[in-house]
């Protein structure tokens, strides 16, 4: 290929700037008229035609370059969902200072309104069963038998086993946009029992349904639980209940059960609510408060370490129970009940439950329902909805 031909191909044979004087075009009449008009226009602007062409080409190249720029990845700690929006999404897990100024009546009214909103948003308890383990391979054959009981007796429910990888993905997808510190906290906790506790609250708050530990066994189909419980509460409808809580400890008899016994057995008080199983509609205030409370506490604990990082936080067994476990869970629930009832509910009112008892939109089950066979709480196996086999896979995490 000759240099002249390559030059013509690059410049364009029809470009009036580069055509030779002997070149003829059958459309010359039209093009000359157009070219003449363009020349007059450019002459008026005093812009040379060659400069105009170069400017247009440079602009085109710049556009192509910008269009093909690689996407810049954003760290997961940053709220991905808020980029490009006029306002950041509302943070969910934050304490509201304004609540401190509310009267008991105002707090009660606010909680009753939230309870109605939860019931409207989710008319039924979601037909979902959630369990968690490190991988899809369970520890032993007994665990497979236990998990299969949930699927076998509840075929209409969506069963999901969250592994370490899928659980982290769930937390990122559901909370990174609004509460990136929650994602950071979940990822950074060295003692993974803390993250496991945290995960159940996050899943129940976002998705709802039933969370239950891997070492539990279903004894009665979930669809029967509410109806069987409300038999003891005439006038209470399933739509009145947004969250169901199980009793782990009921030892109000101080003569039979001493304070030392309570302490030695790892309980913080004589009434304690279990959290190996949680049943809730999504968005419940108890769950939001629990997540907010543990987040604030662990953040404070981290700030007191030598590094100031969450990774440096280490807890003893009792501290784990207090930070993310049933001790804190019980306190959060009791305060919620006080506020939605508009009074201080005594600890005795949670004792000796037969069947179920209702406070606000919370249904409390007797120990026989979710923790049967416990002598100290008078639990009866015959009335159980589930059985807890106490494998205690988390124990020892305080020594890691």
Automatic annotation (TrEMBL):
Q: Where are the transmembrane segments?
A: 52-69
Q: Which domain of life is it from?
A: Eukaryota
Q: Which of UniProt's keywords are assigned here?
A: Membrane, Transmembrane, Transmembrane helix
InterPro entries to which the protein is assigned, alphabetical: GlycoTrfase_DXD_sugar-bd_CS, Nucleotide-diphossugar_trans, Och1-like
Name the Gene Ontology molecular function terms of this record.
Answer: alpha-1,6-mannosyltransferase activity
In its UniProt entry, what is this protein called? Initiation-specific alpha-1,6-mannosyltransferase
Gene3D superfamilies of this UniProt entry? 3.90.550.20
Query: What's a Pfam family in this record?
Result: Gly_transf_sug
